[in-house]
Amino acid sequence: MLYSTKEDLLNDLNGIVDIQKGGTIKIIDTDTFRNNKIDTLIYNAVFNKETTIKNISRWLIRGCGNQLGIVSSSIQSLYEAIGKKQFKGFTVPAINIRGLTYDVARSIFRAAKKNHVGAFIFEIARSEIGYTDQRPVEYTSAILAAAIKEGHEGPVFIQGDHFQINAKYYEKDKDAEINKVRGLIKEAIEAGFYNIDIDTSTLVDLNKPTLTEQQRLNFEFAAEFTAYIRTLEPKGITVSVGGEIGEVGKKNSTIEELKAFMDGYNSTLSAKGKGMKGISKISVQTGTTHGGVPLPDGTIAKVKLDFDTLKNLSRVAIDEYGLSGAVQHGASTLPADAFDKFPETCTSEVHLATEFQNMIYESSVFPKDFKNEIYEFLRKKYASDRKECETEEQFIYKIRKNGFGLFKERFWNLPSDVKNKIGEELEAKFDFLFKKLNIIHSKEIIKKTIKPVGVQLPTPPDFP
Questions:
Q1: DSSP 300
Q2: Phi then psi for 222, rounded to 5 degrees?
Q3: DSSP code for 238
Q4: Residue ranges covered by each domain of the chain
Q5: Is residue 147 a contact partner of residue 105, using CB atoms and an 8 Å limit?
Q6: CA separation (Å) from 335 to 416, 436, 452?
Q7: What is the model's pTM?
Q8: What is d(CA 61, CA 39) in angstroms, rounded to the nearest whole number?
């Protein structure tokens, strides 16, 4: 149901949520709000054409979440504790949701609740924000609404993934590209993204004579963006910041590169402000590719991930720099027996995305006519992007991620039985991953290390 006016919205919540003068929110009937109203509120937060109603819906979801102890939070203090060797033996999954965001997030919260999991992150990359048509405030709303719906308790970690300088745009107009990243950082933090992965590894130049010079633009801009983030933090929150030394899909990272980056980064950051907190983790390349490499028949090529390199990089990151360890990207399409190796190698965080997209499209209950309609539309729209050597299956595999943004409302409005079945399949997958990554019962660790800070948001304009 879409509200026609803000009065309709407020009347629908009458007796359930009390909005007091000054914007203070008080939930009167939690069960009714969770069971009967949050679905409508998040639908309006995403799809209502009236900006006022959309903004009020988003504000209410965030405010009601705070009231219920479902608070968008930074994972910084957990990562600091890992860097001090107070905890080890588990890897935090960072999960990118490209489509059916509310329903997929619900399946994650169900799997987490069943296994007493607290250490998991929701994230979205700069590129995904574009092709999935999900700005940060919308993404936060969907995640927090899902947490409310499933009765989650505790902090929720939402992360900007690959907030990246595009090397081609940087060459054309340096200032414009830097300002785009700065603008996205500001937008994300205002939306409740209190975890930001800076990716300036795109500027690494392997043609330079020394490792320091190869990494210079990378560590200088990483330090600049870190300092900028620190100026935007709400009171009581230290945003967890990540850096990256090797672009995913390129050559594997080395210990020497990690040290060159960290030494240059720490020196540059120190010059910007004494005692300023730096990054809490470091992303590296050990053999994966985002989305996997599709073979001519559409299946994914097997990846040989270098776990020895990952282990050694994590060890140096922790022992010498007090970080939480190395971060592995592009891992969701790895074979099942690979995932329990991440905790063994002290991998801090593993980023997972494409497999969940694949599970949605390839589910036996996903409507075939709708899938064919999406594929046919994408074939025409992206025809110029097809390489001569690509098979039909490879081309579709590469471009179908774009369908989530172009057909967002159609995905959202799939029949309930279809969404429920897909949700069950995804929940089983997340249950498996949580066990493999050894984060079962991590809720207790989160309680010990994280103190959520509920940020008071300004009342939306034109609000009575």
A1: B
A2: -60, -40
A3: -
A4: 6-67, 72-359+417-449
A5: yes
A6: 31, 12, 35
A7: 0.95
A8: 11
- Between strands 154-164 and 70-73, the pairing is parallel
163 touches 126 (CB < 8 A):
yes
Nearest to 288 by CA among 352, 236, 341: 352
Is 310 exposed, middle or buried (CB count within 10 Å of its CB: 0-12, 13-18, 19+)? buried
Handedness of CA 198, 203, 207, 208 (dihedral sign): negative
Contact 411, 367 (CB under 8 A): no
CATH number assigned to the domain covering 72-359+417-449: 3.20.20.70
CB 150 within 8 A of CB 157: no
The answer to whether the CB of 273 falls within 8 A of the CB of 227 is: yes
Is residue 202 within 8 A of residue 164, CB to CB? The reply is yes
Q: Which of 334, 445, 356 is nearest to 90 (CA)?
A: 445
Q: Give the number of residues written for the chain.
A: 464
CA 307/CA 93 separation, integer angstroms: 17
Nearest C-alpha neighbor of 166 from the set 198, 200, 197: 200
Query: How many beta carbons lie within 10 A of that of residue 413, not counting itself?
Result: 12
Nearest to 193 by CA among 22, 20, 73: 73
* pLDDT tens digits in sequence order for the chain, 464 residues long: 899 999 999 999 999 999 887 788 999 999 999 999 999 999 999 999 999 999 999 999 999 999 999 999 999 999 999 999 999 999 999 999 999 999 999 999 999 999 999 999 999 999 999 999 999 999 999 999 999 999 999 999 999 999 999 999 999 999 999 999 999 999 999 999 999 999 999 999 989 999 999 999 999 999 999 999 999 999 999 999 999 997 644 678 899 999 999 999 999 999 998 889 999 999 998 875 544 445 465 555 555 678 999 999 999 999 999 999 999 987 767 888 889 999 999 999 999 999 999 999 999 999 999 999 999 999 999 999 999 889 999 999 999 999 999 999 999 999 999 999 999 999 999 999 999 999 999 999 999 999 999 998 888 887 76
Tokens of 416: 């309930």
d(CA 147, CA 160): 19
Mention every residue, 6+ apart, whose C-beta is less than 8 A from residue 398. Answer: 291, 294, 385, 390
